[in-house]
Amino acid sequence: MLPVGTIVNVLAVLAGGAVGLLAGNRLSARVRTVVFQALGLCTLGIGVTMILGMRNPLVVIFSVVGGAVCGEVLRLEARLEGLSERLKARLRSKNELFTDGLVTAFLLFCVGSMTILGAFDEGLRGDPTLLFTKSLLDGLAAVALAATCGLGVLFSVIPLFLYQYGLTLFAGLLHSVFTEPMIAQLTATGGVLILGIGLTLLDIKRIALTNFLPALPLCVLLSLWF
Protein backbone atom coordinates (compact mmCIF):
# COMPACT_ATOMS: atom_id res chain seq x y z
CA MET A 1 0.00 0.00 0.00
CA LEU A 2 1.03 3.59 -0.57
CA PRO A 3 2.18 5.02 2.81
CA VAL A 4 0.41 8.37 2.45
CA GLY A 5 0.79 9.29 6.11
CA THR A 6 4.51 8.54 6.19
CA ILE A 7 5.11 10.37 2.91
CA VAL A 8 3.32 13.45 4.26
CA ASN A 9 5.37 13.14 7.45
CA VAL A 10 8.61 13.09 5.47
CA LEU A 11 7.54 16.09 3.37
CA ALA A 12 6.56 18.02 6.52
CA VAL A 13 9.98 17.43 8.09
CA LEU A 14 11.74 18.43 4.86
CA ALA A 15 9.65 21.59 4.57
CA GLY A 16 10.11 22.50 8.23
CA GLY A 17 13.81 21.73 8.05
CA ALA A 18 14.21 23.91 4.96
CA VAL A 19 12.49 26.82 6.71
CA GLY A 20 14.73 26.26 9.73
CA LEU A 21 17.86 26.30 7.59
CA LEU A 22 16.84 29.59 5.98
CA ALA A 23 15.96 31.10 9.34
CA GLY A 24 19.14 29.82 10.96
CA ASN A 25 21.33 31.66 8.49
CA ARG A 26 19.68 34.91 9.57
CA LEU A 27 19.91 34.35 13.31
CA SER A 28 22.72 35.72 15.46
CA ALA A 29 24.79 33.41 17.67
CA ARG A 30 22.94 34.63 20.78
CA VAL A 31 19.52 33.94 19.27
CA ARG A 32 20.65 30.47 18.14
CA THR A 33 21.80 29.75 21.69
CA VAL A 34 18.43 30.80 23.12
CA VAL A 35 16.59 28.69 20.53
CA PHE A 36 18.81 25.73 21.42
CA GLN A 37 18.05 26.17 25.11
CA ALA A 38 14.32 26.53 24.49
CA LEU A 39 14.34 23.38 22.38
CA GLY A 40 16.23 21.54 25.12
CA LEU A 41 13.71 22.56 27.78
CA CYS A 42 10.76 21.56 25.59
CA THR A 43 12.46 18.22 24.87
CA LEU A 44 12.85 17.57 28.59
CA GLY A 45 9.13 18.28 29.02
CA ILE A 46 8.24 15.84 26.24
CA GLY A 47 10.44 13.17 27.80
CA VAL A 48 8.86 13.58 31.25
CA THR A 49 5.36 13.38 29.73
CA MET A 50 6.26 10.15 27.93
CA ILE A 51 7.73 8.59 31.08
CA LEU A 52 4.60 9.31 33.14
CA GLY A 53 2.77 6.52 31.30
CA MET A 54 5.21 3.89 32.56
CA ARG A 55 3.55 0.60 33.59
CA ASN A 56 6.52 -1.42 34.83
CA PRO A 57 9.66 0.50 35.92
CA LEU A 58 11.79 -2.67 35.91
CA VAL A 59 11.15 -3.23 32.19
CA VAL A 60 12.20 0.34 31.42
CA ILE A 61 15.31 0.17 33.62
CA PHE A 62 16.51 -3.16 32.22
CA SER A 63 15.72 -2.01 28.67
CA VAL A 64 17.71 1.21 28.96
CA VAL A 65 20.67 -0.33 30.77
CA GLY A 66 20.78 -3.47 28.60
CA GLY A 67 20.25 -1.46 25.43
CA ALA A 68 23.07 0.92 26.35
CA VAL A 69 25.47 -1.97 26.94
CA CYS A 70 24.50 -3.60 23.62
CA GLY A 71 24.91 -0.32 21.79
CA GLU A 72 28.31 0.28 23.35
CA VAL A 73 29.52 -3.23 22.47
CA LEU A 74 28.27 -2.78 18.88
CA ARG A 75 29.79 0.74 18.78
CA LEU A 76 26.63 2.16 17.22
CA GLU A 77 27.53 5.77 18.01
CA ALA A 78 30.97 5.48 16.44
CA ARG A 79 29.59 3.74 13.36
CA LEU A 80 26.88 6.34 12.86
CA GLU A 81 29.37 9.15 13.32
CA GLY A 82 31.58 7.57 10.66
CA LEU A 83 28.68 7.31 8.22
CA SER A 84 27.59 10.83 9.02
CA GLU A 85 31.09 12.20 8.49
CA ARG A 86 31.29 10.54 5.08
CA LEU A 87 27.88 11.94 4.17
CA LYS A 88 28.91 15.37 5.42
CA ALA A 89 32.08 15.19 3.34
CA ARG A 90 30.09 14.32 0.22
CA LEU A 91 27.80 17.27 0.88
CA ARG A 92 30.78 19.48 1.72
CA SER A 93 29.03 20.62 4.88
CA LYS A 94 31.07 22.35 7.58
CA ASN A 95 28.37 22.12 10.24
CA GLU A 96 29.77 20.54 13.42
CA LEU A 97 26.25 19.63 14.58
CA PHE A 98 25.40 17.58 11.47
CA THR A 99 25.44 14.20 13.27
CA ASP A 100 23.78 15.56 16.42
CA GLY A 101 21.00 17.04 14.31
CA LEU A 102 20.38 13.78 12.46
CA VAL A 103 20.28 11.61 15.59
CA THR A 104 18.27 14.10 17.65
CA ALA A 105 15.69 14.55 14.90
CA PHE A 106 15.37 10.80 14.33
CA LEU A 107 14.71 10.14 18.01
CA LEU A 108 12.23 13.01 18.33
CA PHE A 109 10.32 11.98 15.21
CA CYS A 110 10.36 8.20 15.68
CA VAL A 111 10.25 7.50 19.42
CA GLY A 112 6.74 7.78 20.77
CA SER A 113 3.31 6.22 20.84
CA MET A 114 2.01 8.44 18.02
CA THR A 115 4.51 6.87 15.60
CA ILE A 116 3.43 3.32 16.43
CA LEU A 117 -0.30 3.99 16.66
CA GLY A 118 -0.29 6.17 13.54
CA ALA A 119 1.57 3.57 11.48
CA PHE A 120 -0.79 0.85 12.73
CA ASP A 121 -3.87 2.92 11.93
CA GLU A 122 -2.69 3.38 8.36
CA GLY A 123 -1.61 -0.23 7.96
CA LEU A 124 -4.71 -1.84 9.42
CA ARG A 125 -7.49 0.59 8.57
CA GLY A 126 -5.94 2.73 5.85
CA ASP A 127 -6.47 5.82 8.03
CA PRO A 128 -3.49 8.23 7.98
CA THR A 129 -5.20 10.88 10.17
CA LEU A 130 -2.97 10.33 13.20
CA LEU A 131 0.16 10.49 11.04
CA PHE A 132 -1.11 13.75 9.52
CA THR A 133 -1.33 15.20 13.02
CA LYS A 134 2.15 13.89 13.81
CA SER A 135 3.40 15.46 10.56
CA LEU A 136 2.29 18.90 11.68
CA LEU A 137 4.05 18.53 15.03
CA ASP A 138 7.22 17.12 13.44
CA GLY A 139 7.30 19.89 10.84
CA LEU A 140 7.19 22.57 13.53
CA ALA A 141 9.88 20.79 15.54
CA ALA A 142 12.04 20.50 12.40
CA VAL A 143 11.99 24.30 11.99
CA ALA A 144 13.51 24.90 15.42
CA LEU A 145 15.87 21.94 15.22
CA ALA A 146 17.24 22.74 11.74
CA ALA A 147 17.72 26.39 12.70
CA THR A 148 20.22 25.27 15.34
CA CYS A 149 21.56 21.89 14.17
CA GLY A 150 21.55 22.43 10.41
CA LEU A 151 21.37 20.08 7.45
CA GLY A 152 21.56 16.81 9.38
CA VAL A 153 17.95 17.26 10.47
CA LEU A 154 16.74 16.91 6.88
CA PHE A 155 18.57 13.60 6.47
CA SER A 156 16.69 12.16 9.45
CA VAL A 157 13.81 11.54 7.02
CA ILE A 158 15.65 8.47 5.69
CA PRO A 159 15.49 6.42 8.93
CA LEU A 160 12.11 8.04 9.66
CA PHE A 161 10.65 6.68 6.42
CA LEU A 162 12.19 3.22 6.81
CA TYR A 163 11.08 2.82 10.43
CA GLN A 164 7.57 4.23 10.11
CA TYR A 165 6.78 2.56 6.80
CA GLY A 166 8.15 -0.72 8.16
CA LEU A 167 5.66 -0.54 11.02
CA THR A 168 2.86 0.15 8.54
CA LEU A 169 3.79 -2.85 6.38
CA PHE A 170 3.98 -5.21 9.34
CA ALA A 171 0.95 -3.76 11.12
CA GLY A 172 -1.11 -6.90 10.63
CA LEU A 173 1.65 -9.12 11.97
CA LEU A 174 2.66 -6.90 14.88
CA HIS A 175 -0.78 -5.72 15.94
CA SER A 176 -1.31 -8.63 18.30
CA VAL A 177 2.17 -8.12 19.76
CA PHE A 178 2.03 -4.36 20.34
CA THR A 179 -0.60 -4.28 23.07
CA GLU A 180 -1.51 -1.11 24.92
CA PRO A 181 0.73 -1.92 27.94
CA MET A 182 3.66 -2.64 25.60
CA ILE A 183 3.18 0.65 23.76
CA ALA A 184 3.13 2.40 27.15
CA GLN A 185 6.43 0.73 28.08
CA LEU A 186 7.97 1.59 24.71
CA THR A 187 6.84 5.19 25.09
CA ALA A 188 8.34 5.39 28.59
CA THR A 189 11.62 3.90 27.39
CA GLY A 190 11.65 6.37 24.52
CA GLY A 191 10.95 9.13 27.04
CA VAL A 192 14.18 8.28 28.86
CA LEU A 193 16.07 8.65 25.58
CA ILE A 194 14.27 11.94 24.91
CA LEU A 195 15.43 13.19 28.32
CA GLY A 196 18.97 12.38 27.20
CA ILE A 197 18.43 14.55 24.13
CA GLY A 198 17.27 17.41 26.35
CA LEU A 199 20.36 17.15 28.55
CA THR A 200 22.57 17.16 25.47
CA LEU A 201 20.79 20.15 23.90
CA LEU A 202 21.14 22.10 27.15
CA ASP A 203 24.84 21.24 27.23
CA ILE A 204 24.42 19.67 30.66
CA LYS A 205 25.79 16.27 29.69
CA ARG A 206 26.81 14.89 26.30
CA ILE A 207 25.24 11.43 25.99
CA ALA A 208 25.99 8.93 23.20
CA LEU A 209 22.30 8.41 22.51
CA THR A 210 22.77 6.20 19.45
CA ASN A 211 24.16 3.52 21.74
CA PHE A 212 20.85 3.53 23.62
CA LEU A 213 18.70 2.66 20.58
CA PRO A 214 18.78 -1.13 21.26
CA ALA A 215 16.73 -0.31 24.36
CA LEU A 216 13.61 -0.11 22.16
CA PRO A 217 13.65 -3.67 20.71
CA LEU A 218 14.85 -4.94 24.08
CA CYS A 219 11.81 -3.29 25.69
CA VAL A 220 9.54 -5.24 23.33
CA LEU A 221 11.18 -8.53 24.31
CA LEU A 222 11.08 -7.78 28.04
CA SER A 223 7.45 -6.67 27.82
CA LEU A 224 6.56 -9.98 26.18
CA TRP A 225 8.46 -11.82 28.89
CA PHE A 226 6.79 -10.00 31.78
Furnish the topology, listing elements before pairings.
Layout: H1 4-24, H2 29-51, H3 57-74, H4 76-91, H5 98-110, H6 113-125, H7 129-149, H8 157-169, H9 171-174, H10 180-201, H11 215-225
Helix pairs in contact: 1-7, 1-8, 2-7, 2-10, 3-10, 3-11, 5-7, 6-7, 6-8, 10-11
Description:
This protein has 226 residues and is an all-alpha fold. It has one domain (4-225). Helices cover 77% and strands 0% of the residues. The protein has helices spanning 4-24, 29-51, 57-74, 76-91, 98-110, 113-125, 129-149, 157-169, 171-174, 180-201, 215-225. Helix 1 (4-24) packs parallel to helix 7 and helix 2 packs antiparallel against helix 7. The chain is globular, with a radius of gyration of 17 Å. It starts with a helix and ends with a helix.
